[in-house]
Amino acid sequence: MAGVEKLTEYAHQGLPIIISGGTPFNLSGYNASGSAYVKEALAALTELENVHEVPAENLSASLTSLGLVPRTKVDADRIWYTYWREDEKAAKTYVFVYNDAWESELGLGSSNGSVTFETTGVPYFYDAWTGDIEAVREYQQTEKSTIIPLSLAGNQSTIIGFHHDEFAPKSEDADSPPDWHKSDSKFNIRQHPYHKTSTKTLPLTSWTLTIESWSAPENLTADQTLSSKSNSTYNLPSLQPWNAISDSLNNTSGRGFYNTTFTWPPADCDSRHAILDLGALSNTARAWVNDRQLPPLDPTHAIADISEHLQDGENEVRVVVATTLGNAVRPYWGELRSSGTLALGPLPLAQEYGLVGEVSVKYE
Fold first, then answer.
1. Could you say which of 32, 50, 65 is where a domain stops?
2. How many domains does the chain have?
3. Distance CA 236, CA 288 (A)
4. CA 144 – CA 121 distance, rounded (Å)
5. Gyration radius (Cα) of the chain, Å
6. 284-305 pLDDT, tens per residue?
7. What is the pTM of this model?
8. Rounded CA gap, 228 and 357, in Å?
9. Is the pLDDT of residue 319 over 90?
10. Selection from 234, 238, 239, 241 nearest residue 208 by Cα
11. pLDDT at residue 69, rounded to an integer
12. Rounded to whole angstroms, how far apart are CA atoms 39 and 76?
């Protein structure tokens, strides 16, 4: 009853109310007077001009026909989801954009598109992994909206913040950078030369891998919080999942310590700008170039600018990968207990741990 009373209050204040699939015809529990009140109140609401009954099917089309449009409009080759938050005190709007590739294999499901945001201000990318805030270098803007092109890896997300207390310079302003220009009377487009696409690739091969295996203790009852650890080392001409390296690694979890070297610069390198690309990660990783640790890596698209860390001649790359305990518990699944009961659910599927795709340095 309290919920219906609130709906009635909002409706009489003029808030648009959408009832999808019709008003309820059955109420849980038994309270004759309460049920009658709810049904009568909802029936009365449908008489108001700002209360609309629409079919349950194709709700988005019904909302559009009523003039209710979302604050974000996605135009992409896959399904993207957006989440909108505003901080009026800080004069900022934040929008979370996610590329849904849940059903795609690891490393697949990348998507290109654009999002139209029903807001203006100066847009910035917020990196949730590193904490960095970087100005969006390419966008179109009208008086009421902003269009930003995006390229997202499978299951990758990004956060875009709009700073409403800032104003972007226009091309005719004396202090504006030379990469600003107007495409027509409606749009200001900002582009930046630092964001050119790297077109050349140097694959990294000949890896040394040391696996620190974490397995169950000898006594599962007495040593529940301990693990048995052991190391094994492998020379890998190319990268592959742990369980493809050796049958002895089929049920191995833990940490993998990867090491390789490469020569810099390549003969066809035209700049000192380079990106380390680890591809998509099944879990998490940290990386170092010449003993300098790189920022935290987004597992869906693990890349980092390594330009400042490179030296002429031999360069070393180290990567530490951590896994879940999924593979390690497979041999003991029937013995595991949680809250005094045996583990619920089927035997976990074997996971492909480690660096599983091509790792490379990309440059121009």
1. 65
2. 3
3. 19
4. 10
5. 28
6. 999 999 999 999 999 999 999 9
7. 0.78
8. 29
9. yes
10. 234
11. 84
12. 42
